[in-house]
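Revision sheet: structure tokens.
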Amino acid sequence: MLAVAGLIVLIACVQYQVVGRYVFNDTPTWAEALALLLVLYITALGVAVGVRDAGHIGMDSIVSLLPEKFRLKLEIVIHLLVGLFGALMVQNGWLWTTMKWNDKKPMLSVPSGLDFLPLVIAGVLIVLFSIEHIIALLQGKEVIPAWN
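Predicted:
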């Protein structure tokens, strides 16, 4: 829902910029900067939802050829690796967010660290969604996709 709301605001920003440029001959510079920032957040949320819905790149062809007991173990390993990647996103995203927080974006007058905060948000969600998948696998349940 947040990504969809962000996409609507992104479309409005781009539309405002186009109308300002071609109709009023006055390009609002903040609109492009805000649109670029929104793209980062929308993409990060989309990536996290992709992990939640198991839409990430997995080894499905190898997994489907294995016997059931190996299949479960390999699926757990895959989700552990995806969760590890999410944890690395959190760690490095937080490092960059804090390093750049005192710098200001010239067009928006907001901290430049906001460019890296989506890595932290997406990383936390990826870790949580990976844990959810592992628990579901161990319980013999299936995670119902969010886009159902």
